[in-house]
């Protein structure tokens, strides 16, 4: 293998550890949701406290969505620990046209967030509060970068 090929492979392996697709399931497998979710990418994975984390959700709709809300519930070891609601149009371009679209949310988790495996449930509601989709997935939070004597 040439050095160039080896360098390209190394870069690809490095990038694959930064962004990883996450297994997603619907809250109700028997429900015919208007919005179909194709996948969730989390970057970085695992999330590092004190640094920006981005959740990108790729989805598809057969109807125009002019406004709505994202309702997010987070659990840690089965215990509900956090809820938040976001305006859909703050997380994607509105109106959402028929076809594929991306919902992306970034935030920095506080340094005191404990490491471990978390569960997230996200409901997407339209302007009339009708549930367009509901998904569940897990994500991991690793240890934040700690300061050392060398950093001083």
From TrEMBL:
Sorted alphabetically, which keywords does the UniProt record give? Signal
Which SUPFAM superfamilies does UniProt cross-reference here?
E set domains
**What positions does the domain MD-2-related lipid-recognition occupy?**
24-139
SMART domains from the entry? ML
Q: InterPro entries, alphabetically?
A: Ig_E-set (IPR014756), ML_dom (IPR003172), ML_PG-PI_TP (IPR033917), NPC2-like (IPR039670)
The answer to whether UniProt assigns keyword Cytoplasm to this entry is no
Note the superkingdom of the native organism: Eukaryota
Signal sequence span is 1-21
- Tell me one Pfam family matched here: E1_DerP2_DerF2
Name under which the protein is recorded: MD-2-related lipid-recognition domain-containing protein
């Amino acid at each position: 293998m040439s050095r160039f090929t080896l360098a390209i492979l190394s870069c690809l392996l490095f990038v694959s550890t930064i962004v990883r697709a996450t297994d997603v399931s619907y809250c109700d497998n028997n429900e015919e949701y208007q919005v179909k979710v194709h996948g969730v990418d989390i970057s970085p994975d695992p999330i590092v406290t004190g640094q920006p984390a981005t959740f990108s959700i790729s989805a598809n709709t057969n109807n125009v969505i002019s406004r709505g809300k994202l309702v997010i519930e987070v659990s840690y070891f089965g215990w509900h620990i956090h809820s938040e609601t976001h305006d859909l149009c703050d997380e994607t371009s509105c109106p959402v046209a028929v076809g594929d679209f991306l919902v992306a949310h970034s935030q920095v988790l506080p340094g005191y967030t404990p490491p471990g495996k978390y569960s997230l449930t996200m409901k997407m509601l339209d302007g009339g509060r009708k549930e367009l989709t509901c998904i569940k997935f897990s994500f991991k939070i690793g240890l934040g970068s700690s300061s050392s004597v060398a950093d001083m």
